[in-house]
Amino acid sequence: MKFYDSRWIEFGRKDNLCQQISDITGIRPRVLRGADPTKLTVAERMSWASGRMTSRVEDIAYSLMGLFNVFTPMLYGEGYRAFTRLQEEIMKQSEDYTIFAWKSRSSDSVRRGILAHCPDEFESSLRTQERTQDTAQVLTKYTTPEHQLHIPTALTSRGLTIGLPLLRQDVNENDIPDLSDLTLSSSSRASDLRQRSQGTVSTPGENTLLSPGTYLALICRSHHRTGVVSSILCIWLQNHGENGVFRRLSPGKVVLLPNDRASEFKIHTIYVLPSGTEELE
């Protein structure tokens, strides 16, 4: 690949500009040199498209099909729904739950579905000094209760059916703690959360419904570039009392906890609203 300026004078090639291209795009140099991008997490690949502009809104999603080895019919006129359909197709092919490791630009305590609105919401996965690790590797660290099987994600009339490690954290909806600052030490992050919430481990019984309230959902592990596990990444979910459907709470915030707290989470199979901001009926 050759690069030219506005006067069509060649000023470099991809091999000798590799590091500069990586700094601008966030794509790892080894991928630019030919490594298989599908070996990287969904969140990291999504982050490469953050800031992308297209003439048609739908092309933001359609242009990513090849990167994720999925196909979705191109239906111009559906608007931002195209990106939702893209994520649904990705989940049919992969159990990489870093697809939920997005962060909206709004810090308000709004409620949303568990799916992102656009690739821009994955930008934080690109710009941080850490890399997310596939949740499939996280789930192997847990002992699943005999009565509860970890099932693949499926889209149903009630929402996404998904098995996620959850930890009950009863906090005020308007005072959700944001522990996404990586400059905090592991001990201070854990202490802060304990002081600002009253957490209890949810141990499910057979056919027991999770009570209404706020929960932390463990999405993935976060690795330093050195390969050392530094923390677990969680998002806030709220269980709606009337129909038991969860939705994401405070989508502008994520939680990074010390890795040793992962053992406090227990896997539950739940329904989660996939997208939309409308109130549940």
Describe this structure in words.
The chain folds into 2 domains: 2-95, no CATH class; 131-272, no CATH class. The longest helix is centred in the first third of the chain and has 13 residues, at 81-93. It has 281 residues and is α+β, with helices and mostly antiparallel strands. The chain has helices at residues 18-25, 29-32, 42-47, 59-62, 65-68, 81-93, 123-127, 135-139, 186-196; strands spanning 2-4, 10-13, 111-112, 130-133, 154-156, 159-170, 198-200, 213-224, 229-239, 245-249, 255-258, 266-272.
Overview in brief:
By secondary structure, the protein is α+β, with helices and mostly antiparallel strands. The chain is 21% helix and 25% strand. The radius of gyration is 20 Å and the shape is globular.
Kindly list the characteristics that best describe this protein.
single chain, 281 residues, alpha+beta, five-stranded mixed β-barrel, two-stranded antiparallel ribbon, 9 helices, 12 strands
The best one-word shape is globular
Number of domains: 2
Mean pLDDT: 78
Order of helix and strand elements from N to C terminus: EEHHHHHHEHEHEEHEEEEEE
Strand order of the largest sheet: 6-8-9-10-12
Distance between the termini: 53 Å
Query: Considering DSSP H and I runs of 4 or more, what fraction of the residues is helical?
Result: 10-25%
Number of β-strand runs: 12
